[in-house]
Amino acid sequence: MAIVMKIKNIMHYHMALVGGFLGGYAVMFAASMFGNAQTVNLINAVRDMFSGDLSALLLRLLGALIYFAALAFTVILPRLVRVNLEYVALGVDGACLLILAVLPKGVNDFFILYPIFFAMAFQWPVFSEIEGFNSSTIFSSNNYRQFTTAILSYALDRKTEQLNKARVYGFTLLYFHIGVALACVSTAFFGRTAALAAFLPLVSALCFKLKGEKQRRRAFLTDSIRPK
After folding, report:
1. What is the three-class DSSP state of 133?
2. Three-state DSSP class for residue 136
3. Alpha carbon of 53 to those of 48, 107, 144: distances in Å?
4. pTM of whole model > 0.85?
5. pLDDT tens per residue, the chain (228 residues)?
6. In angstroms, rounded to a whole number, what is the distance separating the alpha carbons of residues 135 and 148?
7. Are residues 90 and 205 in contact, defined by beta-carbon separation less than 8 angstroms?
């Protein structure tokens, strides 16, 4: 099972890379809006409400509803059908990348944000835990706080568990921003179709997922035939 856990960790970092890519992509092509979260969108919705910009307000509220719907699906789907949400999340991310790559030039910024809102909201609760730590793969604030407090706690107290915590959050931050860097470089050369570049870590994550399932089944069979 140690191999399965290692594969799970690798997948977490791959998904952080995807999250960083889509976060960077949204900032570059959607008026510096961060498509992985709702904080900026909802702040601007309040601003639009008081400024009287009804059309912008409706677009932002639709974005918030899309984000809500994706989160709701992660709760409802497992209650309706037997499904592995990690496979679904990988598929949703893939569909998001394809939509972004084919959107026509000049489209409203929100039509760039909407697929990112849905994909990242779905990914958030599905890939949110690593080695017992709650670590998001779609934004950095909590990861940054946890890394900072863990590394300072280790420097002061020299406790190994704090060093392990700093390692987990530090690598998640690293991979997230590698994803941002990939978005910067690929979009500089290929524009909006650079969304397809994120299939590299996404397909790699899928391969590790399949490998992990194979290892899990092998471990189960080994345990079932082992003499009691």
Report:
1. strand
2. coil
3. 5, 19, 35
4. yes
5. 577 788 999 999 999 999 999 999 999 999 889 999 999 999 999 999 999 999 999 999 999 999 999 999 999 999 999 999 999 999 999 999 999 999 998 899 999 999 999 999 999 999 999 999 999 999 999 999 999 999 999 999 999 999 999 999 999 999 999 999 999 999 999 999 999 999 999 999 999 999 988 887 776 666 656 665
6. 14
7. yes
Of 149, 175, 171, 177, give the one whose Cα is nearest residue 161.
Answer: 149
The residue count of the chain comes to: 228
Q: Which residue has the tokens 């524009």?
A: 191
Map tokens 């189960």 to a residue.
Answer: 220
Element (H, E) at 193: none
- How far is C-alpha 163 from the chain's CA centre? 24
Task: List the domain range (segments joined by +) for residue 49.
Answer: 2-225
Residues ≥6 apart with Cβ < 8 Å to 203: none
For the chain, the domain total comes to 1
- Please name the residue ranges forming H helices in the chain: 2-29, 39-51, 54-80, 85-102, 109-126, 141-157, 160-190, 199-225
The C-alpha atoms of residue 197 and residue 29 are separated, in whole angstroms, by: 15
Q: At what angle do helices 85-102 and 54-80 cross, to 10 degrees?
A: 150
* Dist CA 210 CA 16 (whole Å): 18
